[in-house]
């Protein structure tokens, strides 16, 4: 690589200055994601304290494992790491999109339901008449 400069007035003299070629580290070709898998809970109890997470996988494994989460609905929020935060009762749609290949996307529904029956421990009590009461 060279840089051409002219020197002098009215003279046609030229000087070539050689500059070193910049060296860049060799880059390996980047793998393009071809398949997206999503693992998620289909139903979540509103009172449950379990920390749920959306697990994703992109094939081939050499491709970058970067996804984005988009939620439609008011029953859940999802963090960038895929952790689910319950915000209310109902059904929300979750769209998972590969950042390197936006054509790869999965849309799933997650239902947050109210607890229908709550079971408590059983105990026996005696009534004033001497009977047994199950509580």
Q: Gist?
A:
This protein has a domain at 35-113: Sandwich (Immunoglobulin-like), CATH 2.60.40. It contains no helices and twelve strands.
Q: What do these coordinates show?
A:
- The chain has strands at 2-7, 13-18, 35-39, 43-45, 55-59, 67-72, 76-78, 84-86, 90-98, 105-113, 124-126, 132-134.
- It has a domain at 35-113: Immunoglobulin-like (Sandwich), CATH 2.60.40.
- It has a four-stranded mixed sheet with strand order 4-10-9-6, with no helix packed on it. Strands 1-2 form a two-stranded antiparallel ribbon.
- 0% of the residues lie in helices and 45% in strands.
- By secondary structure, the chain is mostly beta strands.
Strand content bin: over 45%
Number of helices: 0
CATH topology of the domain at 35-113: Immunoglobulin-like
Gyration radius (Cα, Å) is: 32 Å
Sum up the overall morphology in one term.
Answer: rod-shaped
On the 0 to 100 scale, the average pLDDT is: 84
Give the CATH architecture of the domain at 35-113.
Sandwich
Strand order of the largest sheet: 4-10-9-6
Could you list the spans in which at least 5 consecutive residues all have pLDDT below 50? Answer: none
Helix content: under 10%
Order of helices and strands: EEEEEEEEEEEE
Terminal CA distance reads: 91 Å
- Kindly name the structural category: mainly beta
């Amino acid at each position: 690589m060279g840089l051409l400069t002219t020197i002098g007035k009215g003279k046609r003299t030229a000087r070539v200055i050689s500059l070193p070629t910049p060296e860049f580290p060799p880059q390996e070709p980047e793998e393009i994601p071809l398949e997206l898998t999503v693992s998620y809970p289909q139903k979540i109890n509103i009172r449950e304290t379990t920390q749920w997470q959306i697990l994703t996988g992109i094939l081939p494994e050499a491709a970058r494992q970067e996804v984005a989460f988009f939620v439609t609905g008011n029953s859940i929020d999802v963090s960038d790491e895929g952790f689910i935060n319950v915000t209310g009762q109902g059904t929300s749609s979750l769209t998972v999109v590969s950042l390197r290949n936006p054509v790869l996307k999965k849309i799933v529904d997650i239902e947050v339901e109210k607890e229908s029956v709550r079971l408590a421990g059983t105990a026996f009590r005696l009534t004033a008449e001497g009977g047994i009461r199950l509580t």
